[in-house]
């Protein structure tokens, strides 16, 4: 019996239990405070929908005899939530405490007595000292999106005050007890379910988390949660997969995310940590898709450049080229031979690439005749920044190292060609790459979320975005 239960428990532990996140999102108390402000209005609206059923009955009142009474048309006029606190409960979730709240309402009263006597009027009523305490759990749903639920709730009312208009004052005392009793019942029954409603109204919004964010025709980023959020004294931390995939086929790269945690900063509402794993999974996807390659022809080199892609320019350094292929234009194919490697050091994002350059002569009949293949190792520095709801970047060349791979034109010195290839990287390859990087990569987002004053810093092994947020609808 024990073994069976134990095995059942083990089976319940999700397989992602040991998966490190590629992206970590931290919601601070400042962020929670913003959520609280949005929550007040929502709960206020809900409480305004409380309905109080008509109350009627008959009571013996000496010396008059039987008095029939009814209270009807009770309507909520206002709900005040002067104290509305949201606190983090480590390990559990969020505690919501409403205190000193009031609900004011009005209605009509009507009585019949001594067979033919009738009277009616109106009343105003205020319920004071309303307290609601509820705990909200935050979990990951089956799609890896956050979901919230009420785990308990208690509501109480401390006093009611009623003011009658019209009628005889001896009647008032009679009603007061019945109104209070009917009202307490109605409120006790409705407040917690309404608060639970307001809480679960959050779920459709949480469902808008872009668990698969499309980047371009090749790639998408998975932002599903790899485990339930963890709640500490000062924040709620969300562990997201943060992995680039090829849209057509999800394939795991030969490396996995390392554990990382965000610094204890709390001055912004939200912190987003993007690991080198995430960046390198992008490099893996694009390299694997074969899109990290570029054919370069002379018309892509600025007119002002004295260096042209032809056998005359190259012939100046490799005489065999000028001799065997006089007067021809050339074409270069630059491509990666393995996934570029991205590293983050404090204030330093670097991309190292191992690639090749193949040079061709373009024959008059358009045939490409290969001249040589060079190995090209390069390192670029990346400037990374937040643009809208995306991370974008631009790179500049750090250094470049050329060695001869294969030559079809005999042996030659590579070093003298450095300037040509530096120029090719700087004026053709890097601008193309930068145009791509400027388009950006979507960050995890919820609904119509805007980042306000987002700052990005590169730290050891991850980038940290600190930002405030604003929901616009
Ligand atoms: C940045 O990091 C790379 C690789 O870790 C290193 O080669 C380079 O020198 C660093 N640049 C600066 C400016 O620190
Ligand atoms: C194109 O021209 C080259 C050089 O003259 C020649 O070797 C090759 O056979 C030609 N190819 C075709 C398809 O005509």
Automatic annotation (TrEMBL):
Gene3D superfamilies attached to this UniProt entry: Bactericidal permeability-increasing protein, domain 1, Bactericidal permeability-increasing protein, domain 2
Stored InterPro entries: Bactericidal_perm-incr_a/b_dom, BPI/LBP, BPI/LBP/Plunc, Lipid-bd_serum_glycop_C, Lipid-bd_serum_glycop_N
Stretches assigned to the Lipid-binding serum glycoprotein N-terminal domain: 26-249
Gene Ontology biological process terms from the UniProt entry: defense response to Gram-negative bacterium; innate immune response
Pfam family of the protein (one): LBP_BPI_CETP
Swiss-Prot/TrEMBL keywords: Antibiotic, Antimicrobial, Disulfide bond, Glycoprotein, Immunity, Innate immunity, Secreted, Signal
Intracellular or extracellular location(s): Secreted
Signal peptide start-end: 1-18
First-listed, main subcellular location of the protein, grouped into a coarse class: secreted
Record-level GO cellular component terms: extracellular space
Subunit structure, interactors included: Monomer. Homodimer; disulfide-linked.
Family to which this protein belongs: Belongs to the BPI/LBP/Plunc superfamily. BPI/LBP family.
Stated name of the protein: Bactericidal permeability-increasing protein
């Amino acid at each position: 019996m024990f073994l069976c239960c134990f095995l059942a428990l083990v089976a319940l532990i999700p397989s992602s239990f040991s998966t490190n996140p590629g992206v970590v999102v931290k919601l601070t108390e400042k962020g929670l405070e913003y959520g609280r402000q949005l929550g007040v209005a929502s709960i206020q609206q809900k409480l305004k929908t409380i309905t109080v059923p008509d109350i009627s009955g008959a009571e013996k009142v000496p010396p008059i005899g039987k008095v029939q009474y009814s209270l009807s048309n009770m309507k909520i006029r206002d709900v005040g939530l002067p104290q509305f606190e949201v606190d983090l409960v480590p390990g559990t979730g969020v505690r919501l405490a409403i205190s000193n709240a009031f609900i004011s309402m009005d209605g009509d009263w009507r009585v019949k007595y001594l067979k033919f006597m009738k009277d009616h009027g109106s009343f105003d009523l205020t319920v004071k000292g309303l307290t609601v305490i509820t705990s909200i759990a935050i979990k990951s749903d089956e799609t890896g999106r956050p979901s919230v639920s009420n785990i308990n709730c208690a509501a109480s009312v401390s006093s009611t005050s009623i003011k009658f208009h019209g009628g005889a004052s001896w009647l008032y005392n009679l009603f007061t007890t019945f109104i209070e009793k009917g009202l307490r019942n109605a409120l006790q029954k409705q407040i917690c379910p309404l608060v639970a409603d307001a809480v679960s109204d959050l779920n459709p919004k949480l469902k808008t988390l872009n668990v698969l964010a499309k980047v371009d025709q090749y790639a998408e980023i998975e932002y599903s949660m790899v485990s339930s959020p963890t709640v500490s004294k000062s924040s709620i931390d969300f562990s997201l997969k943060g992995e680039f995939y090829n849209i057509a086929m999800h394939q795991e790269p030969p490396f996995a995310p390392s554990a990382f945690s965000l610094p204890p900063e709390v001055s912004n509402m939200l912190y987003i940590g993007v690991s080198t794993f995430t960046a390198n999974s992008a490099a893996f996807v694009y390299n694997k898709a074969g899109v990290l390659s570029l054919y370069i022809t002379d018309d892509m080199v600025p007119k002002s450049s004295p260096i042209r892609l032809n056998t005359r320019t190259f012939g100046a350094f490799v005489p065999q080229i000028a001799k065997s292929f006089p007067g021809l234009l050339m074409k270069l194919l630059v491509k990666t031979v393995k996934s570029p490697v991205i590293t983050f050091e404090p204030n330093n994002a670097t991309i190292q690439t191992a690639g090749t350059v193949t040079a061709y002569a373009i024959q008059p009949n358009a045939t490409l005749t290969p001249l040589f293949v060079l190995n090209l190792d390069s390192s670029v520095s990346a400037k990374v920044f937040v643009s809208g709801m995306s991370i974008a970047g631009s790179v500049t060349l750090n250094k470049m190292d050329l060695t001869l791979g294969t030559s079809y034109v005999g042996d030659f010195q590579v070093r003298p060609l450095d300037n040509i290839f530096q120029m090719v990287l700087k004026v053709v390859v890097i601008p193309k790459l930068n145009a791509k990087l400027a388009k950006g990569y979507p960050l995890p987002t919820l609904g119509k979320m805007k980042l306000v004053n987002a700052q990005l810093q590169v730290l050891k092994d991850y980038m940290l975005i600190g930002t405030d947020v604003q929901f616009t609808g």
